Amino acid sequence: MTRERADAARNRAKILAVAAGIVATRGIDGLAMADVAAASGVGVGTLYRRFGDRSGLAYALIDAKEREFQESFLAGPPPLGPGAPPGERVRAFLHALTDRTFAQLDLLLMAETAGPYARFGGAYEAYHRHLAMLIGQALPEADAAFTADALLAPLTANLVSHRGRTPAELKAGFDGLLTGLFPG
């Protein structure tokens, strides 16, 4: 694997920060390659070579946050990371995933609706495996795979957008479900 040059890594970080700022203020529809290039101090050609197109840039934004999120539930401090009881970890995970979903809702909506199975890529599989493992530890008699899918379903970007629930409402809904799943 080729290691990224230090100046290229700095440019990438700067480009992603600028793009994230644009998406935060203008939404995904306001993300224009020319604007990102100008604000980042790089040429438009550099941007296209690096990310391919606007959707490639959007996916890079998602990927950067996704790596942080996965690190937090795989190796971060409890209760999200290892060291807490499975039920507590499931709750912390669903709360953190709610926050993560709302932080990039426009980007995730674009990514999840790009094709019929776009939602079920690497990140979803990582979430599903993680939840199924925790559920299996806490409830060996449960269908852990089904329960994981059922818990992840409310956080699809298109459903979050369609229903218009707030993060607090979703977290309260999860808490109610989890009280039933993990009593006491």
Describe this structure in words.
- With 184 residues, the chain is mainly alpha-helical.
- It has two domains: 1-52, Arc Repressor Mutant, subunit A (Orthogonal Bundle), CATH 1.10.10.60; 63-181, Tetracycline Repressor, domain 2.
- It is 72% helix and 0% strand.
- The chain has ten helices and no strands.
- The protein is elongated, with a radius of gyration of 18 Å.
Mean pLDDT: 90
**CATH topology title of the largest domain:** Tetracycline Repressor, domain 2
Poorly predicted segments: none
- The computed structural class is mainly alpha
Q: What's the overall geometry? A: elongated
Radius of gyration: 18 Å
Summary keywords:
184 residues, mainly alpha, Arc Repressor Mutant, subunit A, Tetracycline Repressor, domain 2, 72% helix, elongated
